[in-house]
Design goal:
Blueprint lengths: L1 H6 L2 H16 L7 H23 L7 H38 L3 H4 L3 H9 L12
Helix pairs in contact: 2-4
C-alpha cells in the first residue's frame, strides 16, 4: 500500500504531467512517458534497496535524517517545476496582454505590409501610428 501512495506523490504527477504537456505541444506522442519514468524511478529505488541490504543494519544512524532528506528533495523538485511553470505563465500573460491592445497587430507590422493591406481595402492606415 505504501508503494501505491508513493506513486501518487505530487512530484511524480508533476514530472509526468510536464513531460506529457511538452511532448504534446511539440506534436509528439507521449505514450511511453509513464513507462520510462517507471524504469528510471524503479532502478533508483532498487539501487537504494541494494545499498541498504548490503550495509545491513549500519544505516540506522540515518533513519531520522532520511525523511528530511527525502522530503527536501521532493520539495526542491516541486519548487523548480513551479518556477518553470511561472515562467511559462509569464510568457502566456505577456502574449495575451499584447493581443488585447488596440491595433496590436497593426503596430507590429512593417509600414510596407500595412500599405499592401490598405491597397487591398483591409483597413484605414490613418488609424495606425509608427513607433
Amino acid at each position: 500500500m505504501l508503494g501505491l501512495r508513493h506513486a501518487f506523490d505530487a512530484d511524480h504527477i508533476a514530472a509526468t504531467d510536464n513531460v506529457v504537456r511538452k511532448l504534446t505541444h511539440e506534436g509528439k506522442h507521449p505514450f511511453s512517458v509513464g513507462f520510462f519514468f517507471l524504469l528510471g524511478h524503479s532502478s533508483i529505488v532498487v539501487l537504494g534497496y541494494l545499498v541498504i541490504a548490503a550495509t545491513g543494519n549500519q544505516l540506522y544512524v540515518f533513519q531520522d535524517i532520511g525523511g528530511v532528506i527525502g522530503t527536501s528533495i521532493s520539495a526542491l523538485f516541486l519548487l523548480v517545476i513551479g518556477f518553470a511553470n511561472l515562467l511559462v505563465l509569464r510568457g502566456i500573460w505577456a502574449g495575451f496582454s499584447r493581443a488585447r491592445q488596440p491595433h496590436a497587430y497593426l503596430l507590429h507590422t512593417q509600414p510596407a505590409q500595412r500599405m499592401r493591406k490598405h491597397a487591398r481595402g483591409g483597413f484605414d492606415p490613418g488609424q495606425c501610428q509608427d513607433a
